[in-house]
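Anyone? Bumping this.
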Amino acid sequence: MASMTQQEAEALIEEVLEVYPEVARSERAKHLSAVGSEEQPSSKCVTSNRKAVPGVMTQRGCAYAGSKGVVWGPVKDLVHISHGPIGCGQFSRAGRRNYYTGHTGVDSFTTINFTSDFQEKDIVFGGDPKLDKILDEIEMLFPLNNGITVQSECPVGLIGDDIDSVAKQKSEQLGKPVVPVRCEGFRGVSQSLGHHIANDTIRDHVLSQREPRREAGPYDVAILGDYNIGGDCWASRILLEEMGLNVVAQWPGDCTVAEMENTPAVQLNLLHCYRSMNYISEYMKSTHGTPYLEYNFFGPTKIAKSLREIASYFDEGIQDNAERLIARYQPEVDAVLAKYRPRLEGKRVMLYVGGLRPRHVIGAYEDLGMEVIGTGYEFAHDDDYQRTYPELKEGTLIYDDASAYELERFIERLQPDLVGAGIKEKYVFQKMGLPFRQMHSWDYSGPYHGYDGFAIFARDMDMTINNPVWGRMTPPWKRAEPSASAAA
Amino acid sequence: MSQDAEAVKPCYPLFQDNDYQQVLARKRQEFEAGVDQERIDEVFRWTTTEEYQELNFSRESLTIDPSKVCQPLGAVLCSLGFERTLPYVHGSQGCVAYFRTYLNRHFKEPVACVSDSMTEDAAVFGGHNNMNEGLQNAYQVYQPDVIAVSTTCMAEVIGDDLNAFIDNAKDGGYLPREVPTPFAHTPSFVGSHIQGWDNMFEGTARYFTINEMADKEPGSNGKINLVPGFEGYLGSYRWVKRAMEEMGVGYNLLSDPTEVLDTPADGEYRMYAGGTPIEDLRDAPNSIDTLMLQPWALTKSRKTVKQTWKHDAPEIQVPMGLEWTDEFLMKVSELTGQPIPESLAKERGRLVDMITDSHQWLHGRSFALWGDPDFVMGMTKFLTEIGAEPKHVLCHNANKRWGKAMRSMLEETPQGQEAQVYVGKDLWHMRSLCFTDKPDLMIGNSYGKFIERDTRYLGEAHEVPLIRIGFPIFDRHHLHRNSIWGYEGAMYILTTLVNAVLERLDEETGHLGSTDYNFDLVR
């Protein structure tokens, strides 16, 4: 089946919107669009970063998820307290696969759930005294921690607690950062504000409070906005180091406070997830004069382009190294493409993910001969969509903060060969007989970044699209034409 | 490393390759400013000591690695068990994303649940508008027969009144008056997920029956009501249904998620499937009586059933293991007058037969275990029935009364003499216990894998293997389809335990030329 034209896509959007009551329909209409042709550009850009429509089953999370779950949580030598009732810390425990090295419970703490487990008396009388005690107890039991963050859950901001002063006092007493993060789940409209709040607290409690611990070298760079999911960042830094750059820090996957402190002095910040870490990148640019470069390490085309762009900030030696690196990996890339491209050529993909992936993975699919026919973000802003449109072909559906209903209808109608979204969507589409990959957690695989990651990406898309199970949804006695739908 | 297209390596073992190991070592050495390995091992060893345990148990405010979650998760599971019922959570939207994810990961199934996405303005003005719009949209888009409303802590802290809000939404024309909207306040800062289930059930039962009691008469429909409580094993529900059918007993299983959490992959997604018909719940007061299958977790529901439905709701134990399954069936028989059929006697006999077959591998083995109160009590009871010895019995979300009951149960059996009972403690406490007083094995949810890893780091002799029985199980597939209730459940537990013991023994004795004299073919 060919992709839709813009008109067909717009008609489909109209049809799907019909289900909504009037207010919801007019709001949701602003978030759905189809890409126009070059001659006839889309009549509208989608609206984004607005409040979710109540009751429609948004897939979004909250500010706490954006701070504890995304930005702060992976920083491994800090203890992150889920401050409030019991659920949030447990729901967000160890599910995101931000890999790190270390001895958990001794010098690293990422997958442990520290919580204040608020009880009714904490709500009534305030949680500050409990927090004060908790900070002491952490110090008593985890002496090698290099600091503590306090990740606020909803009640903290509603009962008038002053975690800032508790944290300030304790930070002075302990001589290490104690960071109060006001990322209560009701703030903002999605995870996105949590990213911003977390970035601001890194600025206020780490970067502006502490000096770099080392002399900056001429080839120092830092990776920002890489969550090291399945080891993504490790598969990235190995390339940068091979081309002669010195990766002083990686944020926040497998990150330490010392790495954060050293970052402002680097020559160049490399920003992978723009959405979640552009704030701190901008801060370092304006305050320390550290430039930053957005890059994309998904798929060989984008990797090569990014490596050259990164190298262009440095001398010819680095530029030559980049070329040598690209050439060295070319045979590996060729072998991966030779094996997997024929099995994936022409397959159509629909995506619905978070920060950067709805646009960043398109190139990797295209390297494999695949086509993205629909994409959308849970919590993007306008600047994300501006970065997305150039990657899309005419008729591609765009859905911002899609409801479960919209996703189901769009995907049911378009019958893509692969759906890439999250765990909440996974089982819906698998039951519909559609090959599905989780594109938040890499479906427990990864890394997908870098050349090594691309081979895994190709393998994973192939194993899912070409698994024999998809041909077995209908019992043989119910098939119209016997064996017609048997698997390849 | 460069990947070989014919043998692509994912994260493990990719990062074991020499070049990655060097990259990571250099990162650690040059940039992380961490402490050296000697210091790490010194601190690690300290965390395994009695001294550390004492500090660990002196904690008053900090919770580390809990074994419980918050109320609304339980409310959502309860609501999913009713026919064409959409769980609706009033409050912040992130909570619902978390509830769905948590249940997705355990059941490997889709979970439909909506939020009304309250944000800062709702924190100031209340979530009234969110409720209006949310109910209207949810009803029109997802066409449920019933919308079951619970709350996040945000809505609870600001004091939103569900009854009034829902009523006003109907008055305002946002939701047709006739759409049933059972509701429950489920504050996350009180109790845990099991109280959330209890509150939601109580609210639902109250909603559908309290104003319709005039023509109700206990016993008039000849059925028995069964209230499961928060149960993560689909097979448990199914065993209860099968047992009732084999007994020829009419029953209402009040909340039955076994269809909606186990739909087929056949090309169609079913957002609603099966579940307890609301008519069964409306008719439930006419039943002979109501049995609370997890009595420690259903105290509020039991009270309402007694007061409103005028049922005795006799005290029973969770139907786990041999004796308590016997008691459960005898109680059903006593209430309904239906004899226990030969088929169940035979099933019981098969379980006893299995225990005789396996007892020598289980007798005297010591276990650490944790989970929800009824689960832990039922599991402890069964362990003592097969000659095993509970050692560290921990329940994060039980009360003192439970602790007392557990201790007196253990005192009565020779297998329970060494057991220690811990109420309100978490898995970091359990970690200490596994180091200082090593059990042979642990029984618990997936979170126990971190304790297993830590004990292994101290040395093979200190390792405490985890047997995954409980909620949630995230890192093994499809175990939740089994039963842990009834004779069938006891068979599953027994099989799991004995094979865990044997696998461990094979690991220890499988060393060629050293321990393999005992690497027996027949065990």
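Late reply, but here is one note on the structure posted above: The first strand of chain B starts at residue 63 and ends at 64.
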